[in-house]
Amino acid sequence: xxKVAMMIKARRLFKDICDLPTIPAIVSKVVAxxxxxxxxxxxxxxxxxxxxxxxxxxxxxVNSPLYRTRNPILSVKxxxxxxxxxxxxxxxxxxxxxxxxxxxxxxxxxxxxxxxxFSVGALSRYIGQLGGxxxxxxxxxxxxxxxxxxxFLGHYCKDEYGEMLETIKNTNCxxxxxEYEYFGTTHCEVGLCLAQRWHFPSEYCDIIxxxxxxxxxxxxxxxxxxxxxxxxxxxxxSTLEGIAQVxxxxxxxxxxxxxxxxxxxDLTSVSLxxxxxxxxxxxxxxxxxxxxxxxxxxVT
Length: 300
What we know:
By secondary structure, the protein is mainly α. The chain has helices at 3-14, 25-35, 41-50, 52-62, 76-83, 85-101, 110-131, 136-145, 148-156, 158-168, 175-183, 187-197, 202-210, 221-236, 251-263, 272-278, 280-297.
């Protein structure tokens, strides 16, 4: 696959679309402050209060069962101090991502899509913890937004994407391969275009672009390996009819396993297949967390 040609075709899909979901400028500024370790809580809280929708959303989510607070949290600053800068960054971006596509019609089950995305996020954080990755919230967030390109293709190319999904049911063809045949590009390149439009950090963009070709990742190979394996595991255990197919681990997964062995040698003392099988032991608890996140983030 010619990555340059695929990017050109992905950008053409964006050319005439005027109703793309956006992240408000004030939210981008808040996220930038949350990424800055020198930012003061008061400064961030004051900026968040400028956007009443943002402030209300944060208060609602932090008081949900997801965070299990003992007493109601009524102020943005207290919410920030309770969950920390990194978790606040993750909460805000996740909620705006979900909200942006909530009412976009799709040829596939959006509930199952979100459950898969949240599962990849939760499992990315778990694998990251096992491997000693330093920013578990980042691993969680990148796992959640990994497949944003599918939501774009499903909505803005609804008929073609629906037809494509029908053709690969009960086959060994992956959505990634089928997208290339139908559109000359895939959800990876389309997702990169969206991530760039939303001013995501460069490592997020790189991972979204290369999660099915982890050997091409340059910004953060370690995180790419973590997220790629989490995505593969969730697809292999999934009953998502039509959204994705998965076969035996391929070149991308084998490369991810090799990278993981470099950064976390103790984690890779077993084979890739055995490692994936061992994840079954924690998948039940992951699913419980995912249900909480789904119910919190997708509430009307």
